[in-house]
């Protein structure tokens, strides 16, 4: 299985795109502005979207994706997410004021959007891949995800402050090939990271002390103005840490 990085930035500007990852051809993980990198044909192939949480940088392109593909689909796009995330999107986005309710159009009972509530620890099996919702700690209800193929696994933190339950879960995963973990702020904004429940380099490195140093760690969600600083501050000479980049492909 391969994961293709459509967007992995904590902001926009130039080539920066916010979080969206493509698994195979049919599955999106989050639908930030990176999803806009997909061609029309590729957008029409998306059958499943797994959301980590309801913040705009992770859902920005979901309304436009649905609007774009509605005339090309005979079955709905299934959006998997926590019940709280679904409720937030129903109340504040798909409410006929910000955007139409695509769960009832083109007609009620045959909408192009289907909601699929997902609980922490619950798995979905799709295309020979198992996707499991992992614990996270953020300012809104949130999850990370574990992706398992027959040959390996990748873990993704989503947006989260340090979450011991996340690390305990991924430490027990067989054939773990790598970890994608957000580190939104540099140390000069460590206070903002704490308030907004994100990692900064010091909290990430402290968490990684519990983790196998032979596993590759990719940083995501870096704020564009501080990206180089964050990479420098997370280099500890022990763990294999590098920044995720748009257009990158990870095999597992």
Describe it:
This protein has 252 residues and is of the alpha/beta class. It contains 8 helices and 14 strands. Strand 5 (77-81), helix 4 and strand 6 form a beta-alpha-beta unit. The longest helix is centred in the middle third of the chain and has 10 residues, at 83-92. The mean pLDDT is 97. Residues 17-221 form the Metallo-beta-lactamase domain. Pfam families: Lactamase_B_2.
Highlighted features:
252 residues; 7-stranded mixed beta sheet
Give the topology.
Layout: E1 2-7, E2 20-23, E3 27-29, H1 40-44, E4 48-50, H2 56-59, H3 62-69, E5 77-81, H4 83-92, E6 113-117, E7 123-126, E8 129-135, E9 143-148, E10 153-156, H5 164-171, E11 176-182, H6 190-196, H7 201-208, E12 216-220, H8 227-233, E13 240-243, E14 249-251
Parallel strand pairs: 3-4, 4-5, 5-6, 10-11, 11-12, 12-13
Antiparallel strand pairs: 1-2, 1-14, 2-3, 7-8, 8-9, 9-10
Pfam families: Lactamase_B_2
Protein name: cAMP phosphodiesterase class-II:metallo-beta-lactamase superfamily protein
Domain Metallo-beta-lactamase: 17-221
Compact overview of the structure:
The chain has 252 residues and is an alpha/beta fold.
- The fold-level CATH name is Metallo-beta-lactamase, Chain A
- What is the typical, i.e. mean, pLDDT? 97
Radius of gyration: 17 Å
Share of residues in helices: 10-25%
Principal-axes shape call: globular
Summarize the biggest pleated sheet.
7 strands, mixed
- Counting helices, strands and paired strands, the structural category is alpha/beta
Question: What topology, given as strand order, has the largest sheet?
Answer: 6-5-4-3-2-1-14
The count of strands amounts to 14
User: What's the total helix number?
Assistant: 8
User: How many domains make up the coordinates?
Assistant: 1
- Reading off the top of the CATH hierarchy, the class is best stated as Alpha Beta
CATH superfamily placement: Ribonuclease Z/Hydroxyacylglutathione hydrolase-like
Identify low-pLDDT runs: none
Beta-strand portion reads 25-35%
Query: What sequence of helices (H) and strands (E) makes up the elements?
Result: EEEHEHHEHEEEEEHEHHEHEE
Protein name: cAMP phosphodiesterase class-II:metallo-beta-lactamase superfamily protein
Organism: Jeongeupia chitinilytica
Domain Metallo-beta-lactamase: 17-221
InterPro entries: Metallo-B-lactamas, Pdiesterase2, RibonucZ/Hydroxyglut_hydro
